[in-house]
Amino acid sequence: MKLVKKFLAVCFLLFGIPLSAVIILELLSPKTPAKEKENYVTALTIFTIPSTIVGGWLSWSLVQQNRKEKALLIESEQKRLQLALLELIEQNSGRVTVLQLAKNAEISTQLAKQYLDDKAKELNAAFEVNEEGNVLYHFS
Contacts from 84-90 at CB under 8 Å and sequence distance 24+? Predict the structure, then answer.
């Protein structure tokens, strides 16, 4: 459906914009006879302007659809990370390392650290350093 929408948007815009420009140039030309100007105005209002509007509307709806899809992906990723963190908190009596979260959520350690730092601030977690030198986030 998206591909069809993209194709139609391109077709309408490629038809409407260039022809509108040509017609407007002809309308502005002092050499164009009055009768032809009437025909150009008719063509502009019946064909090219509606085509451009439809193409623009299709393009805009595709942009909006992409934004919604990205927002849903981000939301689902946040839920997945939160679930992984809550499982680790429950399994490890509130102690979580960056490596544990990265492994369980299948994300990079950098993203896991950033996520844990944010959640630690939000939930007032304490920090501990274990014997290997790893930072433990302690959620109560």
Answer: 85/115, 85/116, 85/119, 89/139
